[in-house]
TrEMBL record:
The lineage of its organism: Bacteria, Bacillati, Actinomycetota, Actinomycetes, Mycobacteriales. GO terms for molecular function: 2 iron, 2 sulfur cluster binding; biphenyl 2,3-dioxygenase activity; iron ion binding. It comes from Mycobacterium talmoniae. Its EC number is 1.14.12.18. Residues 36-232 form the Aromatic-ring-hydroxylating dioxygenase alpha subunit C-terminal domain. The keyword Oxidoreductase applies. Keywords: Dioxygenase, Oxidoreductase. Pfam families: Ring_hydroxyl_A (PF00848). Gene3D superfamilies: Naphthalene 1,2-dioxygenase Alpha Subunit, Chain A, domain 1 (3.90.380.10). InterPro entries: RHO_NdoB-like_C (IPR043266), Ring_hydroxy_dOase_asu_C_dom (IPR015879). The keyword Oxidoreductase applies. This is Biphenyl dioxygenase subunit alpha.
Length: 294
């Protein structure tokens, strides 16, 4: 991936990304052979760009309501959309995201559970650090959606692409490009291990198009929410009220659920199980700090 800054005094990229680099590898570094990328698909939505970035960063609680129909038609192995709440959210430096909780098993068994063939698992073991492998193999968390400040997001999921119980994973990278306060251009790429089998690449691309391409089922569900939120936020009553983004906090600002200890989550940063808005607050806090310093 190429990151470009027009600021001659910008800090080094590694310093900017900080601990989020640990999680970035799950999406972009699955093999010594690098990524094969298709796209971008481009489309515009009548919504503010921050809503999509927030959603990918940590919005787990919309899933049981927004995407219930996708689960009910059998697109996923899990029988209930509420399974999402068993996963963890993580925040590390300039980015954070969501995970799913996996059934018991070894690293290889859990990678197979989400659809990776053995040869791709072996390549991941070559490039992922011991700690990265422990997040999956010991802690039992598999990364899903994520956002890197300000407007770069990722998604990793594993739907069924044909009849049967087998699932197949896909990875997508997207950028939220602001057009105005209420319109965003989405640039979405499909990404896959360049050394993956040809059949895997074909089916993974199909899974991406089915879920998060411009006409994907998840994409359509989400955009309906985002457009409605943007319109509602611009209404008379909404402008009189403060947005309450305190899910997961008690009245004295203590978290409802304590962060996962190091022995339960081997990734860096702050990780927490259950529905909360920690990541949304962190992302918007970075945006507010950015506005004050530029």
């Amino acid at each position: 991936m190429l990151f470009i800054s027009l600021d001659p005094h910008a800090e080094p990229l590694a310093d900017y990304l900080g601990d989020f680099r640990f999680y970035l590898d799950f999406y972009t570094n699955q093999s010594p052979h690098g990524l094969e990328v298709r796209g971008p698909q481009r489309w515009r939505i009548n919504a503010n760009w921050k809503i999509g970035a927030e959603n990918f960063a940590g919005d787990m609680y919309h899933t049981p309501h927004t995407h219930t129909s996708v689960v009910e038609i059998g697109l996923f192995r899990e029988p209930k959309a509420q399974k999402r709440k068993d996963g963890a959210t993580y925040w590390a430096g300039k980015g954070g995201g969501t995970t799913y909780k996996l059934p018991p098993g070894t690293f290889a068994e859990r990678m197979r559970y989400v659809g990776y063939p053995d040869e791709m698992i072996a390549r991941a073991e070559q490039v992922w650090t011991r700690e990265q492998q422990r997040v999956v193999g010991e802690d039992g968390f598999m990364v899903s959606a994520a956002s890197c400040f300000p407007n770069l997001s990722f998604v990793h999921n594993w739907p069924k692409v044909e009849d049967g119980h087998d699932v197949l994973p896909f990875i997508s990278i997207r950028q939220w490009q602001p057009i105005s306060h209420n319109q965003t251009e989405v640039c979405s790429w499909f990404a896959v291990d360049a050394a993956a089998p040809a059949e895997f690449k074909q089916k993974s691309y199909r899974a991406y198009l089915m879920c998060f391409g411009s006409t994907g089922m998840f994409e359509q569900d989400d955009v309906e929410n985002w457009v409605s939120l943007t319109n509602t936020a611009g209404g008379t009553m909404a402008r009189r009220l403060l947005l309450n983004s305190r899910m997961g906090l008690l009245a004295d600002d203590r978290p409802v659920v304590d962060p996962l200890p190091a022995e339960a989550f081997h990734g860096p940063g702050y990780a927490q199980v259950g529905y909360n808005e920690h990541n949304q607050r962190a992302l918007l806090r970075l945006w507010a700090d950015h506005l004050e310093t530029t």
